[in-house]
Amino acid sequence: MDTISVAIADDHPLVASGISNLLRANPRFVIHAMYNSGTELLEGLVKKQPDVLLLDMHFPDTTGNELMRVIAVEYQNLKVLVISSIDNIYDIKDMIQNGCCGYVLKSATLEVLTEAIETVYKGEQFLEPAIKEQLLQSVLNNSPKVTDYKLTQREQTILELLSHGKTNNEMAAELFLSHRTIENHRLSLYQKLGVRNSAELIRTALQQGLLK
Hints:
Structural class: alpha/beta
Radius of gyration: 18 Å
Number of strands: 6
Distance between the termini: 63 Å
Shape: globular
Strand order of the largest sheet: 2-1-3-4-5-6
Helix content: 40-55%
């Protein structure tokens, strides 16, 4: 039986180790390497590439989107499977457009993850059912209604800070939250308002009366 070499890029060591231990139980998979940051990943890929890379969406030094753009140019034959807790539709679309072969949520079962790795290894695309449904709904509901905008108090606060030009780091310091938490709220705002960036977010929020 041919083996599939798998690298895991995730900034949470416990998560990476857990995934690694699960995959090692299957003789089909060989763990090629584990990386805890974007810098480590890019340095490791220069030396040797795995068959399949399991890529998280957020790292202390970069994002999965930025890494995917580099990988798509420098390592065109590398099969990238995103495994993340982030289910923001715009991130998913961006990753697919930039060349990732599949997207799986961290809540997926081992069976789904195994199927996903096998599928992308063969050069095919894999999206778990929950992701497919989200993509479908984003097409059917391309223009959300005002009544669909249900922002949490924290999202409203971050929206207002963004409108005043605050950066993620500045908001994190002011609200005593982590950079990752701020980014997650920001991505949630993008999804709820149906926008792709901060400029569109502020413009739409003003048009819909979400900002004074």
